[in-house]
TrEMBL record, chains A, B:
It comes from the Bacteria. InterPro entries: HotDog_dom_sf, MaoC-like_dom, MCH/BMMD. SUPFAM superfamilies: Thioesterase/thiol ester dehydrase-isomerase. This is MaoC domain-containing protein. Residues 15-110 form the MaoC-like domain.
Amino acid sequence: MRYFEDFPVGEIMERGPYVVTREEIIAFARQFDPQPFHIDEDAAGKSIYGGIIASGWHTAAICHKLMVEGLLGQAAGMGSPGLDELRWKKPVRPGDSLRIRIETLEARPSASKPDRGALKLRLEVVNQHGEVVMTEVANALFARRPPAP
Amino acid sequence: MRYFEDFPVGEIMERGPYVVTREEIIAFARQFDPQPFHIDEDAAGKSIYGGIIASGWHTAAICHKLMVEGLLGQAAGMGSPGLDELRWKKPVRPGDSLRIRIETLEARPSASKPDRGALKLRLEVVNQHGEVVMTEVANALFARRPPAP
């Protein structure tokens, strides 16, 4: 189990890869982001993107999936108040293979609640060409390691 | 069609409602956020939330759905470079009815590209009790209104 103390500032972890399919790009966008360049092959081909691209919110959700499956599932997370920043930098296309990099920017023990601390994490989503397609600065609360008995 | 000029600073629009079902909360979380308090009724009941709550990324995706269906579908949008901030303030639970409020914070014509302008929008997601459950500050590019012929 990974506690607040197990995220030293400057440490960088990597998780993934996750390959994004055309079917899931279209399915996500039909539900949450039904713009032509996400759901319609013909319209997307004529757009500035030259083909279907994933909704930015789909990319963000995949980033979170990799965080949960590769890190939060084995960590003493206590939720997130939110993000300080999110940037969509490059399109994500069918067949792209995405990895995430997680860097601890800040680690601040809570002044009022000694059982927890706040982390500021920088997340980067990187494709198979090494291009950064999305970045986030996220805040998260983690439990502190219980004292040895 | 709504252009850059049609988002005066200070204007507030509302869209929705959208009712969130238990089934979709669990389906979204199984795919992107498989933490016990999002997917497992028993575990969620014993958690600090007292029952299943939606993934924050699901709430963000629903907010975007309401934006696209109620605004971007009839506007000259040219994409978004990202968010300056996102905050998850209250849990979203099965049966909640969500509306969004969209306020234009800033409108800046592009200095280098006279056909477009940048908007800064504040989005609030509000539940049926009037509680703000999520906020965002989003950046978006819109085409300027073409000159009359």
